[in-house]
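User: Please predict structures.

Assistant: First:
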Amino acid sequence: MMKKVIAVLSIWLTLLMFSFSGAHTTTAQGYTERVFVTGYGELTVIDPAIPKVIASVKVKGPTRDLSFTEDGTKALLLANGRTTLYVIDTLQNKVMDEINLTGRTDQGMLDRRVWGSAISPDGSKAYAFVTQGEKRTNIFKALPSKIIEIDLQTKKVTRDLEAPYGIHAMVFKKNDPHTLFVWGYDLYTLDTKQWQLKEKEGIKNGKDGSTNVLLLFPRGDNSKFNSFPTVTTYPDGTVKEGMSWTNLETGEVKKKDFDKEPVGMFSAIIDPDERYGYSIMNHWYKVDAKTGHVIKDVKAPTGTIYGINMSTDGKKIYLGGGGNDFIIADTDLNVEKILKTPTDGMDIKVKAIRN
């Protein structure tokens, strides 16, 4: 009898512990979900299962691009006026290395600014789109914009190639460490083995119209889709707001216009099954991804919000950026928790990190 009681108690305790463990934040055994808020002078790290701010990784200036290795144990963060890349240990939540991309030339100072960056899946290299110029005495000479490759061990630029102006986002193709999707006025692919950049699909120069895309908030760290809000002007003059998403496994690009007048959106996500899309700024939408019908339209819960993201299992919506609030909601746009962060934020990224 005693053995049966002990066995029942053991099962009950196990279930109780699981119910309070924030199960939606753990994607598989040995992986833990973390939320990263790009703030001012720091990268704020949140455990969404509690929820609680668990670390503030200090850097210089406002933070921008953030990307991760495949296992999530290392991140690349852009900060310091877009001049410095920081390599972050996401297990210890500390800066491992700092790469300043300004320097000297034979005739003056080399001024480089990064407008899109990504770390390789194995963490050995970084890729960045830079605008650059040479500061001479009383002269600034503009130099061609380029994509550069950086060896993270030596911190040296190993290769570069000229690239179209306007690039602002880079995400690696899933299960392919040699293909980098590159978004600018159009979508390109960079073959890092052959070191060739090719146009894949028109965006601003699309077949059916000219689409503008806000590229400040790329996605795909915790899912197989990168998604953005869109505004398309069609040949007849009609203007439609919507969203576009790229399958990072296949490269397939989809776009769906919303059935509402444009209101302005900063970022967008698509659920794992491509059934629903979500977008945010002053309005917060839930959209039928097949028809573009806006199923639900509510006000952003804390004023203007920049970033929307999703838990790795697709069951929770995360909001942040534009203020110092981190918000957890369900997929029907019902707010469950609001947490204050140390600084105002720019964006939020979600990553399942190998323990």
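Second:
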Amino acid sequence: MNEDGSRLTTPVYRFVDLTPEELRRIRSQCTWLGSIATALSTAVGALILTCGYGVPSATVATQILTVGLGTVATVMCLLSALTLLTGGRNVRTGRFNAGEAAQARQVTVAYWMMTLLTSTVSALSFHSAVRVDGIAYGHHLEYTAPVMAYLMLLISPLLVATATTVAAHQVLRAPTSVGTR
């Protein structure tokens, strides 16, 4: 602890010695899984932006809200993927930094919660545009194939962020097979 006795401002360094095989495994898993999650979240974001204004909607304001929140959900998903992609830095010195890995896992959970909120509100606002606003403004929109596909597209950042968070928790956990220092 430091002078004021606060545990929050004191850095925690917990290192675990790793074998070269475990080092390569953690680095390669972080790189591969982080790259796949980054590519998926980027593709979903591009699809949400390009398809968002072509899907029928009753009001422009709801459509802007849907596309905007879908984009924010994709950005949160992308940040979670980048956290996993850079997770390999926890094993730079040949030792696993368990404190830094725990922080990375907590960050991915925070990004997952923000993705959950924004993706859910985006999907619900699109559902509102299709059903409630459509009836109120005289546009009777139905759940056609493009509308259903876009609704699933609005939920897909949550699916990618969930997979990324689970992968981060699996890859960045402290190995228990070797001794700690």
